[in-house]
Write a structure and sequence with these properties.
The chain has a single domain, classed as Aldolase class I (TIM Barrel). It is 44% helix and 15% strand. The protein is an alpha/beta fold and 232 residues long. It contains 10 helices and 8 strands. It binds SN-glycerol-3-phosphate.
């Protein structure tokens, strides 16, 4: 069960995302979770899932799985593999790892059957609407042109986020919407929550930061600030 607001940190394939550095970032996320109570999920490379999941208590997701069943698929990463390694959820259709629509549906259904949380990534409100119909647990709207730029979607394209949330509410309100691309500060996270999302998906702002713990802490505090405000 993933609480919201949630901060999902995708480690991608950065040099900082392997070995000791990977573990340190994951542990920093855990420290912040323990300090603030804000839900944080780490998404290390497949080769690091086992090490990370056995070292921390916060959820560990996979960045991708191949839409194949176990068998003769050399080099494939199956859902069974990441689950066995300790992943409790996965990203599906990240803009850096696009999939066919039929495969997306198969993976969402298979994740549910395996008790794994699915986070379907989409790029536009229209694709988000199509994605909502497939009933993932989370939808992450990420305009690809802002990824890795440090220009936050929550401030540069608020209309895209708002439209996406509205469309999902109409098509399948059970799906939780988060947003990502260019999110690097607590302020960016706060702006995302103001746009009626329940969290963020981000990468470089934390993974490439000089002090990842400090950035994660600032983001978690922005979540607390937002929650306090809505509680009045
Ligand atoms: O999955 C997160 C993502 O694609 C956004 O990347 O580096 O802009 O936070 P970044």
């Amino acid at each position: 069960m993933i609480q919201t607001p949630v901060i999902i940190i995708n480690f991608k394939a950065y040099l900082e995302s392997i070995g000791v550095s990977c573990l340190n970032i994951a542990k920093a996320a855990e420290v912040v979770y323990k300090d603030t109570g804000v839900q944080i999920v780490v998404v290390p490379p497949a080769t690091e899932i086992s090490r990370v999941s056995s070292s921390i208590e916060i959820p560990v997701f996979a960045q991708h799985v191949d839409p194949v069943e176990p068998g003769a698929h050399t080099g494939a990463i199956t859902m069974e593999m990441v689950k066995e390694a300790g992943a409790t959820g996965l990203l599906i259709n990240h803009s850096e790892k696009r999939l066919l629509l039929a495969d997306i549906e198969t993976l969402i259904n298979k994740a549910r059957a395996n008790n794994l949380v699915s986070v379907l990534c989409t790029n536009t409100p229209a694709v988000t609407g199509a994605g909502a119909a497939l009933n993932p647990d989370f939808l992450a709207i990420e305009p690809p042109e802002l990824i890795g730029t440090g220009i936050p979607v929550s401030k540069a394209k608020p209309e895209v986020v708002l439209n996406s949330v509205d469309i999902v509410m109409k098509i399948n309100p059970a799906v939780k919407v988060i947003c990502g691309a260019g999110i690097t500060t607590g302020d960016d996270v706060y702006a995302a929550l103001k746009l009626k999302t329940v969290g963020v998906l981000l990468a470089s702002g934390v993974v490439k930061a000089k002090d990842p713990r400090k950035v994660i802490q600032e983001m978690a505090e922005a979540c607390l600030k937002f929650q306090n405000e809505i509680r009045g």
